[in-house]
Design goal:
A hairpin with a 6-residue loop joins strand 12 and strand 13. Helix 2 runs parallel beside helix 3. The protein has 5 helices and 14 strands. The strands form 3 sheets. A 6-stranded mixed sheet has the order 1-14-2-3-4-5, with helices on one face. A 6-stranded mixed sheet has the order 6-7-8-9-13-12, covered by helices on one side. It has a two-stranded antiparallel ribbon with strand order 10-11. Helices cover 21% and strands 23% of the residues. The chain is α/β, with parallel strands linked by helices. About 2% of the residues have low confidence.
Length: 297
């Protein structure tokens, strides 16, 4: 009788695990969700401004459902689109990225790259994400130059270690960004400095939300900081949240809107829209884009 009970428990555990894996790989990773937050960063008595934040598409050929959903976000009528990297996961991904983002390129935009805009993903042990000092493994070279030309050709601002001002929503917006800190491509010193007093809004942009970098951007007075990279943990525990962030960011900030500690800056971390192609699962962490409505303080 005892052996039979143990067998039933083991069988039940296996079945529950298989059902969870099937849900995470076949259902939840395709449950694209639009999050909405109000962010109080504008001057008193000014009109709201809508910023659409996209990240971590990790586009593969043939992902028409993801492309269609992202393209449909043009209906949100954003004043500004900001893309925080890791757009590709395959050498032939540029046409899919173009199909997804083409309707959004009718709006003012800006972007930074992530590591997976330069080199492709490689098979890895998922438990390696718990090793903070693990060595980063680069895959095949990706067409980053082609993707950059696509974005800049649409008039979007390239913020990879760059700083600029643009007009969007009738406002002057100062933007500064860095290339991906996760693979040590960032050079914030090249763009550092206090925000302009003449700008209506200032936004700092990075793919990986490394605290050392966010501290510097916040110290320079940027109103809003945008990042991706974490996938929100990708596989989360209900009631607990993310187990890892794959960077120095606290797990409590793995996704969503937060006030950056010790500053007046707000941080939004996108949980992203894709997954690593060798681990195509999401659990308790739906793929997402975010519409940030900036409102008066």
């Amino acid at each position: 009788m005892r052996k039979r009970t143990v067998f039933r428990l083991a069988a039940g555990t296996v079945l529950a695990g298989a059902a969870t894996l099937a849900y995470a790989s076949l259902v939840e990773r395709n449950l694209f969700t639009l999050r909405r937050y109000d962010v109080p960063v504008l001057a008193t008595d000014t009109e709201p401004l809508r910023v659409l934040h996209l990240s971590d598409l990790h586009m593969m050929p043939g992902q028409a459902r993801k492309q269609d959903w992202v393209a449909s976000l043009a209906a949100t009528d954003p004043d500004l689109v900001v893309v925080t990297g890791d757009n590709m996961a395959h050498v032939d991904a540029v046409p899919g990225v173009m199909r997804a983002l083409a309707p959004l390129m009718e709006f003012p935009g800006a972007f930074v790259f992530g590591s997976n805009d330069y080199t492709g993903p490689v098979l890895k042990n998922p438990f390696s994400y718990f090793q903070a000092d693990r060595e980063y493994a680069h895959g095949v070279n990706l067409p980053a130059g082609e993707l950059r030309d696509l974005f800049t050709g649409a008039g979007w601002a390239d913020l990879n270690n760059a700083r600029t001002t643009i007009k969007a929503g009738g406002r002057l917006i100062e933007l500064a960004g860095v290339d991906d800190p996760h693979v040590e491509r960032d050079d914030y010193a090249a763009v550092a400095g206090p925000v302009s007093a003449t700008a209506d809004l200032s936004i700092g942009v990075t793919h990986t939300p490394e605290p050392r970098l966010l501290d510097e951007m916040a110290a320079d007075g940027f109103d809003l900081l945008l990042a991706g990279h974490t996938h929100g943990g990708q596989v989360c525990v209900p009631g607990v949240g993310a187990l890892v962030t794959n960077c120095g960011l606290p797990r409590s900030m793995a996704k969503g809107l937060h006030r950056w500690p010790g500053s007046n800056s707000w941080l939004h971390v996108s949980a992203g829209l894709g997954t690593h192609p060798t681990a195509p699962v999401r659990f308790a962490c739906r793929p997402e884009a975010t519409l940030l409505t900036l409102i008066p303080r």
